[in-house]
Amino acid sequence: MRTTLDLDPVVLSAARAKAAAERISLGKAVSELALSGLRAPSSQFTTASGFPVLSGVPGRPVTDELVAAHRDDEG
Q1: Which residues, 6+ apart, have CB-to-CB distance to 43 below 8 Å?
Q2: What is the mean pLDDT of residues 47-62?
Q3: Which domain holds residue 48?
């Protein structure tokens, strides 16, 4: 379907790069990026307590020491 979109410049740049790398149309690249975002699982869910719970890296528990080491990181 043909339509007009107002894309963020960063999104347009990523779509153009994908289109060029995969030798596909810009429209197909935008569609694929949008669909991949729709399929991406949420990395956060809320428990009954209402606090967000994030999934971690298997085998790498978050310890008090790890939190203390990164507490003041900017990022």
Answers
A1: 54, 55
A2: 78
A3: 9-70
